[in-house]
Amino acid sequence: MSSLDATRAELALLVLYLNKAEARDKICRAIQYGSKFVSNGEPGPAQNVDKTTSLARKVFRLLKFVNGLQSLISPTPPGTPLSLTLLGKSKDALIATFLFLDQFVWLGRTGIYQNKERVERIGRISLFCWLGSTVCTTLVEIGELERLSASIKKLEEELKNSNKYENELYRAKLKKSNDRTLSLVKAGIDTVVAVGLLQLAPTKVTPRVTGALGFISSLISCYQFVNGLQSLISPTPPGTPLSLTLLGKSKDALIATFLFLDQFVWLGRTGIYQNKERVERIGRISLFCWLGSTVCTTLVEIGELERLSASIKKLEEELKNSNKYENELYRAKLKKSNDRTLSLVKAGIDTVVAVGLLQLAPTKVTPRVTGALGFISSLISCYQLLPPPTKSKTL
């Protein structure tokens, strides 16, 4: 494998990791609690980072309580003791309640909901729910580890005349035991973090202790998400015209530059980087990069649609004596054409949004127009992320 292939594989792993919304949330969590550790509850740039990152994370968790509800109604594995089942369901109910109430906290922090006293009360109730869920998780993991330990000992007895590490089942149980031990450690740490956030022991669990433990817990979460990812990246498909290849690579370079510069804008907005004039300049440069990337995307989609259209027409000629909609390849090309058309519409909308954010045409692309188009573009993105429909089985 060449160094370029190795770099591609490493970047693919990172992209796959960061594409998980949960992984991004845990990275933000590490930043949040790291800032809490640095600030020790004192006003300053570190505390600003703590507060802004905490608020940003609440957006990641919008409607996430549905995950908890799904776990709540899902059947437990056969053979699970009733005590562990009840603890597991209690954990799911508590975490779902925490995530549901946390949305009202977000509404209060953003100023949409004005009753500050009620927001604070809801915030404390939600944190108590999270505390309860971490305690339940701790007890569940202890119980499951005891069951696993007994199962491993029984298997060791059966394999005493052979190398147990060569047995696939033994290795699987050992890995499961290690994973549950790590989850137990994390649950224990999170319990102390919840105590710190609720200030139930302010002299012992100080903001600095809370920040340090929260940071460690976040790193454990980040590590847990690495497992199972495969490093795979696809080069440009063969047969792609050079013009489209160059436009695609230009788009990638521009969007990467935009995202890189946007981190400096965040540093400026949180007060870590103090030069406001430079932050504004970097912010405009980053937006121009995004504008350039949307233009490149538009041109790429137009070019790819032209290629697809020619390919579909050629296939229609071959299938003129049969029902083309029964042909799997034809349906696949038609779906691809529809997807690219939607991407073209989104890229066009994003171009106008970028023009609005840069105020290049302030009389025509007003803040309201920018907001409306940005909202439509976001809805298209949400639709594009929907999983494909499952094929119904015919009897």
UniProtKB/TrEMBL annotation:
Coiled coil: 145-175, 305-335
GO cellular component: peroxisomal membrane
Keyword terms of this UniProt record: Coiled coil, Membrane, Peroxisome, Peroxisome biogenesis
One of the Pfam families matching this protein, by short name: PEX11
Any GO BP: regulation of peroxisome size
Membrane topology: Multi-pass membrane protein
Keyword Coiled coil: yes
MF terms (GO), sorted A to Z: identical protein binding
Annotated InterPro entries: PEX11
Origin superkingdom: Eukaryota
Location of the protein in the cell: Peroxisome membrane
Role according to the record: Involved in peroxisomal proliferation. Promotes peroxisomal duplication, aggregation or elongation without fission.
Quaternary structure, from the entry: Homooligomer. Interacts with ARC5 and FIS1B on peroxisomes.
The family this protein is said to belong to: Belongs to the peroxin-11 family.
Protein name as it appears in the record: Peroxisomal membrane protein 11C
Taxon lineage: Eukaryota, Viridiplantae, Streptophyta, Embryophyta, Tracheophyta
